[in-house]
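Assess this one:
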Amino acid sequence: MEHKRQRFQFGWLNLKARKNGPEVWVLRYREALEDGRTKTRSVSIGTVKEFPSESLARKASMSHMLSINDKRPPGLSISFGALMQRYLAEELPERHSTASRYRCWMKNHIEPKWRDFPIESIKPLLVEDWLKKLDLAPKSKAHLKTLMHVLFNAAMRWELIPYQHNPMSLVRVKDSSKRLREPKCLTAQEFCALLEHIPDPFRTMCIVAMCLGLRVSEVLGLKWTDIDWGGMRIAIRQAYVYGRQGDVKTRTSQKWMPLDRSLAEKLRQHRLRFASRPNIANWVFANPETGKPYWPGRVQENWLVPAATKVGIGRIGWHTFRHSHSTLLHALGVDLKVQQELLRHADIRTTMNIYTQAVPNALREANSKVVRLVIPAQVA
């Protein structure tokens, strides 16, 4: 005998006391068993500090109700906040750095504005006007638009709104592909001058970043076991982001890199000076106080930025070394495909359009060639 499908249930909320900390809102609901009976289940929603009233706790619980019920009843309006809660619970990307950014964008920007709006009431022009008023860089606004697009896709997949063209595709973000500032690229002379004001082990970190063009998360993710001293190569296997070991940015990023003898000697010297300190995981650049890799932001603010100020080259960051590496490859006339392989870009257009800049001397030489064609020497 077939059992009739249960009607949409909203469950009921109770406050549960804890030995330590504030009371917790608990959502209880009934789950149908195969033999026709029902069993009461419960799930924690949050503390009274997070949700001071039952109505706020009820809104937060809606994401759980959407998962418990197969579909919503006619006329039930789902808030964008409930959609975000379900997305955070079920679909957040596994990569820690991406998940952290998504949580940050939702908490600081999307949730305060759109939390209480019914999903179907959020229209492209409203979102476009909201993005215009945000005091953020165009690229950051584009990231918010992309995340809104992802959330609307999830809403359609869960049948919270009708299948349709994603409305966020119509939202325009002005100058989203333009940079507010061109990335700083260092010459070899500027880099050497910079190193004079940075002590080890941070100096060696900078040298590795500049010589190999690695992202700072990849520099921090290096382990001594990743170095093949006999084969003179180094493996990029993992990254270290926000205090956690994780995967590198893309599949293309994970590969062996050539290790020049001069750089290998720098790493050997670094190992003799620092590797004897407590370092359970065998990290190349471990903080002796914790045994874990350094926090890149602190190193940047404490050493990179002050050193760059002393040298007079302006503010720099860890990614400056990656851009500089690319530009030096270009200046040396390295084949574009080789540049792509060294930078481990999945798409060669990234190498061409974003990372590589012509150095001033190359610009002058190219311009002179054109001038000599347009204005022959005899005329001059």
In short: The CA atoms of residues 252 and 345 lie 7 Å apart. The radius of gyration is 27 Å. The longest helix spans residues 138-157.
